[in-house]
């Protein structure tokens, strides 16, 4: 396993990070979740990403229970705040001071730890003054409950404003967590250049495009039983934008490229995002332990430039590059 610095800091994380969105406390049973986390540790993964909103706090509890026997200084635990949790009351959502300070305490209890290494704003909150949000994050850091601050799916302008306030408050805003894959490249035009300027790294989610880049979805064929595309608890909605026959046909053409590099299609997809030098880590999820081992093997892979060009040629115009998509990821209101 290779490790990379996160942002302009001395903090290193495993470039393959294990995440439990849509799995722990939802799609898979707790014993399977535990087996997946153990497989991640066995593969050398030390960094684990979750959020209080995942399975309405249950995902944090499952992860905390599984990691409680590990040496705390040897692992990195990330979580997030924004989404509605608990009974989803009027203050159970957003980035207000009240919600942030109450949420960090709940997350620490569920994760069974005194601190998280990275505490992230899961989305941008248009209804709370940014100054209030950043001051609350600064207080969380000064209380020793988080070591660093990050965000998720913020636009270039939002990153710039947040970084300026963080500097004034003497805290480190070091990361952004956007969606990024060979099929979804919307951060490349604006977010990545701005992040490089500000000393912010990307921790990217869905590097395999919700499983589509594994090649398991075939054009014109029925959806595989038990796949994310058939999951009525949320997975189906997240993957459907990638299931057009035009996309699936192109994805099938990536398999020979993967074979030439002695990689599986999934490994090629994970390795592809790690070729971007602003990406500190690719978050992988899993419903089976063997998936973790397979994807973790993408660590340290270098894809030659000629192969990167071939991937671009194969995918062509099915790649989404419109930078405006990032702005739509944060809700205009924070109603629970």
From TrEMBL:
InterPro entries per record: AKR, K_chnl_volt-dep_bsu_KCNAB-rel, NAD(P)_OxRdtase_dom_sf, NADP_OxRdtase_dom
SUPFAM superfamilies in alphabetical order: NAD(P)-linked oxidoreductase
Family recorded in the similarity comment: Belongs to the shaker potassium channel beta subunit family.
Keywords: NADP, Oxidoreductase
Species this protein is from: Leifsonia poae
UniProt protein name: Aldo/keto reductase
Pfam families registered for this protein in UniProt: Aldo_ket_red
Residue span(s) of domain NADP-dependent oxidoreductase: 15-314
Record's keyword annotation contains NADP: yes
GO molecular function, one term: oxidoreductase activity
Taxonomic superkingdom: Bacteria
PANTHER family named among the record's database cross-references: HYPERKINETIC, ISOFORM M (PTHR43150:SF2)
């Amino acid at each position: 396993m290779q490790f990379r610095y996160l942002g302009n800091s001395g903090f290193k994380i495993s470039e393959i990070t294990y995440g439990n969105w849509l799995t722990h406390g939802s799609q898979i049973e707790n014993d399977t979740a535990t087996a997946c986390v153990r497989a991640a540790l066995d593969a050398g993964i030390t960094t684990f990403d979750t959020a209080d909103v995942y399975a309405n706090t249950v995902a944090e509890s499952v992860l905390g229970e599984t990691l409680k026997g590990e040496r705390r200084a040897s692992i990195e635990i990330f979580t997030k705040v924004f989404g509605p949790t608990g009974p989803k009351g009027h203050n159970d959502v957003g980035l207000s001071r009240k919600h942030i300070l109450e949420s960090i305490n709940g997350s620490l209890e569920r994760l069974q730890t005194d601190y998280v290494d990275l505490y992230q704003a899961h989305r941008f909150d248009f209804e709370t003054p940014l100054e209030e949000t950043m001051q609350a994050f600064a207080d969380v850091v000064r209380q020793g409950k988080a070591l660093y601050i990050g965000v998720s799916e913020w636009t270039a302008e939002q990153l710039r404003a947040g970084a300026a306030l963080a500097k004034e408050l003497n805290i480190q805003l070091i990361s952004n967590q956007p969606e990024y894959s060979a099929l979804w490249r919307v951060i490349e035009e604006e977010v990545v250049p701005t992040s490089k300027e500000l000393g912010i790294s990307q921790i990217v989610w869905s590097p395999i495009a919700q499983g589509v880049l594994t090649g398991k979805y075939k054009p014109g064929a029925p959806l595989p039983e038990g796949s994310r595309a058939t999951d009525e608890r949320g997975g189906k909605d997240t993957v459907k934008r990638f299931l057009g026959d035009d996309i699936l046909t192109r994805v099938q053409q990536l398999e020979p490229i993967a074979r030439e590099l002695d990689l599986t299609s999934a490994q090629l997809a994970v390795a592809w995002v790690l070729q971007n030098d602003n990406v500190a880590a690719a978050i992988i999820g899993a419903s089976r332990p063997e998936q973790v081992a397979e994807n973790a093997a993408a660590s340290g892979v270098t894809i030659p430039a000629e192969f990167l060009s071939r991937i671009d040629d194969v995918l062509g115009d099915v790649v989404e590059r419109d930078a405006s998509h990032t702005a739509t990821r944060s809700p205009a209101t924070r109603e629970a």
